[in-house]
Every structure is written in structure tokens, then in C-alpha cells.
Amino acid sequence: MERQIGKTRLLLVQGDITRQAVDAIVNAANSSLMGGGGVDGAIHRAGGPTILAACKEIVARDGRLPAGRAVVTPGGNLPARWVVHTVGPIYRDGGLGEAATLASCYRESLAAAAEVGARSICFPSISTGAYRYPIEAAAQVAVTTTVAEIPRHDFAEVRFCLFSERDLAVYQAAIAEVA
Ligand code: ADP
Known about the structure:
There is one protein chain. By secondary structure, this protein is α/β, with parallel strands linked by helices. The chain has one domain (2-178): Leucine Aminopeptidase, subunit E, domain 1 (3-Layer(aba) Sandwich), CATH 3.40.220.10. It contains 5 helices and 7 strands; from the N terminus they run E-E-E-H-H-E-E-H-E-H-E-H. 45% of the residues are buried. Adenosine-5'-diphosphate (ADP) binds at residues 16-18, 28, 38-40, 42, 88, 124-131, 161, 163, 167.
């Protein structure tokens, strides 16, 4: 599924984000930036030790990364040149600012990627795995925030990579509503 938003192509794909040939992929990290399970583990496994070394430097300098923020490291052995690490909210009941924090992840990740000169970026479904954000609600935040931010930047392509067919269908429905 594909949409054109001004000069930017918005694309949905199903698959493994570590295989995506874009300038920057986004990692759904945790605040320690020390790697973990899910998409985080897959990115560190595929990208090799350069990524963790860069994460350790960032944490030594700036401390743990708060939810909603984003930082950039090299992509190591990945096809992507950069990894944008962002920390999604842990979902509790939706009344603790989870949506605002999740929106901030997408905004800050786009800004961080743009700042290093990335012209294409690929997002996973942030917070909908171990952090238990309900996928329908998360997809709506991901898509509306991204579509609203695209005109502020100069990306040729913004891609969402969904791991399962079901998640892909949920993001497709979210895009059909807003774009
Ligand atoms: P979080 O802790 O932010 O919830 P997870 O990594 O647990 O992050 O899950 C986020 C989403 O990433 C889930 O939908 C999960 O299915 C998906 N995912 C896991 N591995 C990959 C991968 N290699 N490529 C793309 N998406 C993945």
C-alpha cells in the first residue's frame, strides 16, 4: 500500500525491518539502550556490535533515554546507514499520556533522521509488542502523527514495516482513514 503526501511516498510493507534498504530504520528500544527482545534484539543481532558501542557512548554521556525521545547511531552491518533508537511508552490504561508519548516517538524519530540527512526512513510498530499498546490505537497515533509531520521534512520515502499480516492490515486501515 502506498500514498503520495506532497513529495514524500508513504509505504506499508510486511517483513523484517532489519532487511529494509532505507537510509534509517527506527528501533523500538528501551531506556537503557542496551538491547532487548523483539525488534530491538533483531536490530542488534543483524547490525552487530557497532550499534551497542554507540548506544553505550550515548548513555555514558547523556544518561538513559526517556520515553518519547530519539537518538541516532550508525547502522553497523545493516543495509540502513543509521538506526534511530526511540523509547515507546509502556501501555497501562491509556490515561497516563501514552498517546502523547507515542506521538513524540514518531515526531522525534523523523526529526533525528532528518538531522543526519536521511531521506528515507522505516518504522516498526512502536510499543505494540512487549510494551502492550493496543495495535489499533497505536496505528492511529503512528499514522496521524507521521502524516502530519511529513510536510515539515524532506523525506523521499517514509515506510512502516509490520511483522505480521494482521498488523499490516491494521496499519492499512489506519492509513485509509487519514491519507
Ligand atoms: P515494544 O517494546 O516497543 O513493544 P517490541 O519489539 O516488543 O517493541 O514490538 C514492537 C513490534 O515490532 C511488534 O509488533 C513486533 O511484532 C514487531 N517486531 C518484532 N521483530 C521485528 C522485526 N524483525 N521487524 C519488524 N518488526 C518486528
